[in-house]
Design a protein that fits this description.
alpha/beta, L-arginine/glycine Amidinotransferase, Chain A, 4-stranded mixed beta sheet, 3-stranded mixed beta sheet, 10 helices, globular
Amino acid sequence: MEETPSALGYRMPAEWEKHEATWIGWPHNKTDWPGKFAPIPWVFGEMARTISQGEIVRIIAVPDVQRQANNVLKRIGVDLKMVEFFNYPTNRGWTRDFGPIFVKKTDPKTEVAIVRFRFTAWARYPDWKKDDAVPPKAAKKLGVKLLPAKIGEKDFVLEGGSVDVNGTGTVLTTEECLLDTKVQVRNPGFGKAEVDRALQDHLGVTNVLWLGNGIGGDDTHGHIDDTCRFVKRDTVVLIQESDVNDINYKPLHENRERLEGMRLEDGSKIQVVPLPMPAPLLIDGIRLPASYANFYISNAAVIVPTFNDPNDRKALGILSELITDRPVVGIHAVDLVYGFGTLHCLTQQQPAR
């Protein structure tokens, strides 16, 4: 395909590159946090308060939800001049996965576009069509190109939380999420070669690195953003579990072994920094995907989920040593993670033009 985003000169910037805005979908679906919804808008408010100190916060919300959001934002002192609302109906608020995924090119001029990946609610839930309709609406509103994502003649299904890029040609993902042929299958009938090509064509990368499984309790079935994240072009943090009896110990150890043999797009080794896990969090006996890797790098700060755990301080310290050009801020996420996701899952960056 000659007209792929990559062929046209686009690439997905690294998350630490300058943003014009961050997109979030204001929470409204109480079934995502059964019995726990009341504190959730306030956590979103704290996210917006921190992010808006360095960039616009673009909030997806229908009018009734917008009024609720405005009330929260005003009460906690958010500068509403840094907030824009987009009146789009949604099924849920996990904007990382259904929201617009932006790419950027600088030759012959700087230009931002949205790649039209399809969203099918992690191949798990039946209600997704409102979420899937958001990227075309955003492209029209912003006046940017909408670039179709295809594998051959078929639409390519991809969630933002399943990939992480270093901005210079390498993308991380997991086999559990994108290659499983029996559980939560996003792109039936396509194997590694087809998915490699699709990621290269649409994210502007040349180097696809495949880890094995993600962490337990993740109902996305293996998203990389709970497991391993770039913090610099050549450096990743990798979640590690010290308890040999924990369900996460073996898959995370295997991921570390894989990374030791992997190389970046220029052939150089990857610097791998271990990031601890909090103690297991459960609801009704079900493991929740509590992970410090689900941080979000905004212009003003790195916001990191915390879990009232002794390892909170260790994780914040490690990230502060690695990311030194902006503060690292913890945001309480015990309530959020009952929805099976936290800060990175709820945010999507729009690169500066």
